[in-house]
C-alpha cells in the first residue's frame, strides 16, 4: 500500500521518477553510441579481406545493422556504462538539490 503524500510532495516524487527515466534513457543512448563506435570498428576490421572494398550499399546496411545491435544491447543493460552514467547523474542531481536547500 502506498502512503498518501501531500500534493507538493507527490508532484515532486512524480517529477523525480520522470527525470530518472530520462536520465536512464540518456545514459543508455550514450552507451549505444559508444558500442556502435567500438563494434562498428571491430566489424569493419574483421569483416572483409585485406585489399577489398565493399560497395556503398553493403556498407550502409552493415552500419544500420551495427546501430540496431548496439541499441538493442544497451537497452538490455549492455556492458553497464549507461546505468553507471545514470546513477552518477542521479546522485549528482540529488547532491545539487541538497546543497541548494531543496529536498
Fold topology:
Layout: H1 7-46, H2 56-75, H3 81-99
Descriptive notes:
- The chain has a domain at 28-99.
- It is built from three helices and no strands.
- The longest helix is centred in the first third of the chain and has 40 residues, at 7-46.
- Helix 1 (7-46) packs antiparallel against helix 2 (56-75) and helix 1 (7-46) packs antiparallel against helix 3.
- The chain has helices at residues 7-46, 56-75, 81-99.
- The chain has 103 residues and is mainly α.
- It is 77% helix and 0% strand.
In short:
The chain is mainly alpha-helical and 103 residues long. 77% of the residues lie in helices and 0% in strands.
Largest sheet: none
Mean pLDDT over the residues: 77
Enumerate the spans where pLDDT stays under 50 for 5 or more consecutive residues.
5-12
Report the sheet-strand fraction.
under 5%
Distance between the termini: 23 Å
* Number of DSSP E strands: 0
Supply the number of helical segments.
3
Helix content: over 70%
Strand and helix order: HHH
SSE-based structural type: mainly alpha
Amino acid at each position: 500500500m502506498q502512503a498518501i503524500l501531500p500534493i507538493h510532495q507527490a508532484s515532486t516524487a512524480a517529477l523525480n521518477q520522470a527525470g530518472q527515466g530520462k536520465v536512464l534513457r540518456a545514459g543508455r543512448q550514450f552507451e549505444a553510441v559508444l558500442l556502435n563506435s567500438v563494434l562498428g570498428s571491430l566489424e569493419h576490421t574483421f569483416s572483409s579481406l585485406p585489399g577489398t572494398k565493399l560497395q556503398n550499399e553493403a556498407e550502409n546496411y552493415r552500419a544500420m545493422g551495427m546501430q540496431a545491435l548496439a541499441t538493442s544491447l544497451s537497452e538490455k543493460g549492455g556492458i553497464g556504462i549507461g546505468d553507471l552514467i545514470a546513477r552518477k547523474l542521479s546522485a549528482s542531481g540529488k547532491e545539487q538539490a541538497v546543497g541548494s536547500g531543496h529536498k
